[in-house]
Amino acid sequence: MVYDILVIGGGPAGLAFASLMAGMGQKVAVFDRQPKKALANPTFDGRDIALSEKSRQIMDELGAWQYIDTDQVSPIRCARVHDGNGPSSLVFDPRATGADRLGNIVSNHLIRKALYDVAKSKANITLFFDAEVSTLQRGEKVATLILSDGSIFTGALAVAADTRFSKIRQSSGIMADMHDFGQTMIVGRMAHEKSHHYIAHELFRYDGGLAVLPINGNKASIVQTFAADVANEFMDMDDQAYARATEPRLKSLLGKLACDGPRIAYPLVGVYAQKFYTDRLVLIGDAAVGMHPVTAHGFNFGIQGVANLAGHLRQSIARGRDIGAPGALRAYQRDHRRLSWPLYQMTEKMMSLYTNNTLPARIVRKVALHAAQTFQPGKDVMMARLTSTPMRNLLANKLPALPRLFM
Ligand SMILES: Cc1cc2nc3c(=O)[nH]c(=O)nc-3n(C[C@H](O)[C@H](O)[C@H](O)COP(=O)(O)OP(=O)(O)OC[C@H]3O[C@@H](n4cnc5c(N)ncnc54)[C@H](O)[C@@H]3O)c2cc1C
Question: Are 339 and 306 in contact (CB under 8 A)?
Fold first, then answer.
């Protein structure tokens, strides 16, 4: 069967990209190894995704945001980063940007369902379920894909959106930097005694990180990171023991805790592909950049990369060019690296620093946190990015007396 675009992986990146390209009149096939019900009605997987305003806007333009009930969207009004077990913290308050929130929290399964519903509504997208892609052959003019049942498909461009452990990336000879953090992240929702005031917390504790993502109804997604063996002990606890063990780790920020749903463990591996395209193949989502979740950027980078790639391909289509030709793919690679590489690197360094409990490392952390707290321009750039506020608006809010002419 012949299509314009063959997307391998029906996760959020693959589905978002398919819908954007279908909107340009392209005939798209999406293949996922999971059964239809897992894609059409994904179950809660413990991931509560902190979405930046830019990502929300892209989902809105895709028509996916409308599928998410407003009561399932929890605002992040402010964020605090705490060092070690001490009282000091770095505060990100978006009010200076004029925004009422730093971002929104939406459960990953709802994002996946919304993107699935949009893709399903497009006449020129065909979704293949239980469709394990076993081979990709890249010719001069077409990509040919073979499923494990032997079915064959061709297209001008193949797109790997098949997780950070992408087999397609590997079998196409694209190398990737992989960093196994030797740690496991445990995620799960908890109800709590005190109000979270919609403040997100990131606690860099000496015995493992902990994040609080506020959820409507005085609940929070509690994200804890441990060395893999310690994580096993926490996973083995019953709900009550887990709640009691978590309360003091939270510096009593939320008071008494009670588990409110399943606990799920994710081993932490960061992945960065050395290039994002080769002949007739482009990598998107986690297959291109698999972030450590601590900075909550994996999906945000994924969907922004997808929108960027679609923008370059739109120009190719308008000029009557081959969508599998390197020009647009190269431009995407350049832009996506520029967006993601600095934070990917910074995250690796930061996590190394925070898993090192020597005295010098502790001192460096304290100094870095203090410097970040007092260096307002750095915080402003970060908040402008999260809230999609142009820097000139931020300056205008801070310096109301400046003539608007110069803004
Ligand atoms: C605990 C945790 C918390 C996170 N929190 C955040 C956050 O707050 N903010 C944020 O931006 N990001 C966050 N992320 C990251 C985010 O979840 C991922 O970046 C995102 O889900 C990746 O989407 P994807 O479509 O690239 O890949 P995936 O969701 O992994 O989907 C890949 C799909 O490919 C299919 N597939 C694989 N191989 C094949 C094959 N050979 N043939 C056919 N199909 C195949 C799979 O079945 C799957 O459906 C978090 C991640 C974790 C683990």
Answer: no
SS3 label, residue 300: helix
Domain ranges of the chain: 5-72+107-178+270-354
Does position 134 have pLDDT exceeding 90, yes or no?
yes
Q: How far from chain centre, in Å, is Cα 376?
A: 26
- Rounded Cα–Cα distance for residues 265 and 63 (Å): 31
Using a 6 Å cutoff on CB, does residue 300 contact ligand 1? yes
The alpha carbon of 389 is separated from its chain's Cα centroid by a whole number of angstroms, namely: 20
Q: Does any ligand 1 atom lie closer than 6 A to the CB of residue 188?
A: no
- Residue 213, Cα to own-chain centre: how many angstroms? 15
Residue 407: its pLDDT value, please? 31
Longest dimension (CA), the chain: 69
Angle between the N-to-C axes of helices 53-62 and 108-120, in degrees from 0 to 180, rounded to the nearest 10: 30
For the CA of 131, the closest atom of ligand 1 is 43
Has residue 398 got a pLDDT over 60?
A: no
What distance in angstroms lies between residue 11's CA and the mean position of ligand 1's atoms? 6
d(CA 64, CA 66): 5
Q: CA-CA distance, 230 to 208, in Å (whole number)?
A: 10
The pTM of the full predicted model, rounded to 2 decimals, is: 0.90
What does the alpha-carbon distance between residue 317 and residue 157 come to, in Å, rounded to a whole number?
13
CA of 130 to the centre of ligand 1 (A): 17
Q: What's the whole-number mean pLDDT along residues 21-32?
A: 98
Residue in the block written with tokens 């959820």? 215
Is residue 13 within 6 Å of ligand 1 at its C-beta? Answer: yes
Q: Write down the CATH superfamily of domain 5-72+107-178+270-354.
A: FAD/NAD(P)-binding domain (3.50.50.60)
CA of 298 relative to ligand 1 center, distance in Å: 8
